[in-house]
Amino acid sequence: MRKAFFHSIFAISLCLIAFAGVAQNDVIRHDPCDNFLIKKQSDSLKAIFAQNGFTVVREASVTMESEYELPVIVPLNQGTWYQVVFIGDINSNLYEVRMYDYDEKQVVYQKKRWGDVDGNIISYSYIPKFSEYHMIKPVQVNNKQKKDLCGYIMLLKKTQ
Question: How far apart are CA 123 and CA 144, in angstroms?
C-alpha cells in the first residue's frame, strides 16, 4: 500500500515537473535564486568535499517559502556513500531536513537554529541499504520574510 502511494506521488511529481516546463505561469515551478553568501558557502563546501573524494551528483538553488517543505526525490544506490547538504537563508531562524526511504520511513532528521555555529548549513552522510528512491525535505522558518527565501541543496557521492 505504501509503495503504491509512493509510486503515485512520484508519478504525479514527474507529471507536474513536465507540466511546469511547458506552463506559462510560475505556479508549479521552483525558481532559482541568487544569493552571494549561499553561493560562496556552497563553493567552499564543494571544494572541501572534492578534497575528500566526493563529487557533486545534483545541486540546485531554489526560491523557498517560510515553513514549507521542498520535496526532492533522488535515486540512491545501495552501499554508496552520499553526502547531503542544505544551505538556508542566513536570516532564517530554523532549518530542518528530513529524509525518507522508499517505504516512507524517516531515515534522517537534522535541525539547526540561527544561533548555531553553522546554523544555516545542514550536512549529513548517508549510505542506503537498498538501491531505491529517497525523498529529502528541507524547510526553513523565517519570521520576517515569508516568501522568496533562498535555499541550496546538494547531493554528493564518494568516488575515491
Answer: 25
